[in-house]
Write a structure and sequence with these properties.
It is built from 15 helices and 8 strands. By secondary structure, it is an alpha+beta fold. Among the domains are: 93 residues, DNA-3-methyladenine glycosylase AlkA, N-terminal domain (TATA-Binding Protein); 117 residues, Hypothetical protein, domain 2 (Endonuclease III, domain 1), CATH 1.10.340. The longest helix has 15 residues.
Length: 311
């Protein structure tokens, strides 16, 4: 028998809304990322529909739904943020987190200038002018998200994430719209692997790894600690069965405030390297990016988009 573990926030007529505008550093582009990686039909937990993206944050033991409207991009980007809380201090904290998630302070022009060392990479950076991925909130979410994605298509991963979020995440209804949080670790840590495997249609190895990460969540390092020693963290986390190097690399890439790390072994990245740079050897890939190490993760992200693209 299937059960849902949703905590439902009764916010249908919620009046405590605070609205802010953010002005990202130009050039800024985020919608192609949201269209590809934020669910429309499946909450990941983000839902991206008609130019706006929504989800629930967990801050200071309080669940705060928010909605971001992409008002404009390019050279004059503007984001409007709606935060559903009466507490100004919580709203301020939530707004700072949204700033980090949407990487509004990243200097794409500086990145573009650095790419001049290689004409092919400069062309790639120009092609995706201003684009960057969103950040994941914490390493627990990044790890679980990446475990689900292992060795399956993006479409299948999105469907499984949607089941996972709908069954175990926190849900709110506001003005007829659903908002979701990522499933809390205290909920996931109490599950049995076979139950999780059956409920979201994943493998037993993945289910066990997800539960183990949830049980370790309180001991996992903060993002700043990971950024100081990403490779040390990857060595540590790959000791968990079901978490290999790819999962560790992509988890760090998703959660990091920087772009030092990326998944060189990812199949889409490899296809992108071959299409853009004409190489397949991982050692050659790393050598080409040696002078661009501070942007490795962003370059690999753009190359993965090239790898996913149909000719």
């Amino acid at each position: 028998m299937k059960h849902t573990y949703n905590i439902i926030l009764l916010m249908s007529h919620y009046s405590g809304v605070k609205i802010f505008k953010l002005f990202p550093k130009a050039p800024y582009l985020i919608t192609p990322h949201l269209e590809k990686f934020a669910g429309r039909d499946f909450p990941t937990p983000s839902l991206y529909i008609d130019g706006s993206c929504r989800r629930i944050l967990y801050i200071d033991d309080v669940y705060i739904p928010y909605k971001v409207f992409i008002l404009s991009e390019g050279e004059e980007p503007i984001l409007e943020v709606k935060l559903f809380t009466d507490d100004y201090n919580l709203a301020s904290k939530a707004l700072n987190i949204v700033r980090e998630i949407y990487r509004v302070d990243f200097d794409y022009l500086k990145f573009l200038e650095k790419c001049r060392v290689d004409g092919r990479l400069y062309h790639l950076a120009r092609k995706y002018y201003g684009l960057r991925p969103t950040r994941v909130l914490d390493i627990y979410e990044a790890l679980v998200d990446s475990i689900i994605e292992q060795n399956i298509s993006l479409n299948l991963a999105m469907r499984i994430k949607g089941k996972f979020v709908r069954l175990y995440g926190v849900r709110a209804f506001i003005n007829g719209e659903e908002y979701y949080s990522f499933p809390p670790p205290n909920v996931i840590s109490g599950l049995k692997p076979l139950d999780l495997k059956g409920s979201i249609r994943t493998t037993r190895v993945k289910a066990k790894a997800i539960i183990e990460v949830a049980r370790l969540s309180g001991e996992l390092p903060k993002v700043d600690e990971i950024d100081r020693d990403p490779y040390g963290f990857m060595d540590y986390i790959t000791m968990i069965k079901g978490i290999g190097r790819w999962t560790a690399e992509i988890s760090v890439a998703k959660v990091s405030k920087k772009f030092f790390v990326g998944p060189f072994g990812d199949l889409a990245v490899k296809r992108g390297f071959k299409r853009v740079l004409g190489i397949e050897d991982e050692g050659d890939m790393k050598e080409i990016l040696r002078d661009l190490s501070e942007y490795t993760g962003l370059i690999l992200y753009l190359l993965a988009l090239e790898g996913h693209r149909r000719r």
